[in-house]
């Protein structure tokens, strides 16, 4: 059996709500008794689902894995705009929600399909002059953000329970789903925020069968190590 320091590869983790992606890295370090651990594509504390954890030499392919497309399922809360664009933030405006037809909802989602520019939220880890935006936001500051070119490959309204809308979206890297929710709300005129979010896929990797946080914490190290995908296995899965 390899010691934790000799494990190289990728571990698929199903992140629980209320924790940061860095928390998952710390739990993995303890579970496998190894220091060289990274993650691909940050998930906000609100979000759950697939977090790709890289271990040992696996950290060398982190940027490669991070560049792949993602799939999410989420819930849009219409009529409430928050300062963070999700339900972890403070409600800054409430608007009445009309009794939208399905066609009206479809049209708003369709506006954000294909190629478009997205302005990252102030509450984000993007840096302005070396300072993360969320730190400036905490100081009550708002700064100009460079719009990002993003792409939505597929979207689907899964169910409507006014004022909530469940949806699925397949998007490019660097995509902010909470900004997507906010923008669709603005398109509809009533505003919206992201109530819940779950990442279901990243590239060829799926959240089904991913290690849960409970399993990570419970161990033992041998059981967790067996769930680590080797670098050749990752390469095969990616079709590389």
Descriptive report:
The chain has eight helices and 14 strands. It is an alpha+beta fold. It has two domains: about 5-65 and about 205-235, Pseudouridine synthase (2-Layer Sandwich), CATH 3.30.2350; about 70-200, 2-Layer Sandwich (Pseudouridine synthase), CATH 3.30.2350. Strands 1, 2, 3, 4, 7, 10, 11, 12, 13 and 14 form a ten-stranded mixed beta sheet that branches. The chain has a two-stranded antiparallel ribbon with strand order 5-6. Strands 8-9 form a two-stranded antiparallel ribbon. Helix 3 (about 100-110) crosses helix 5.
Quick summary of this structure?
It contains eight helices and 14 strands.
List the helices and strands and how they pair.
Layout: E1 9-15, H1 21-32, E2 37-40, E3 48-55, H2 62-66, E4 70-78, E5 80-82, E6 91-94, H3 102-111, E7 114-118, E8 127-128, E9 131-132, H4 133-138, E10 148-161, E11 164-171, H5 177-188, E12 192-202, E13 205-206, E14 211-212, H6 213-218, H7 221-225, H8 231-237
Parallel strand pairs: 1-14, 3-12
Antiparallel strand pairs: 1-3, 2-3, 4-11, 4-12, 5-6, 7-10, 8-9, 10-11, 12-13
Helix pairs in contact: 3-5
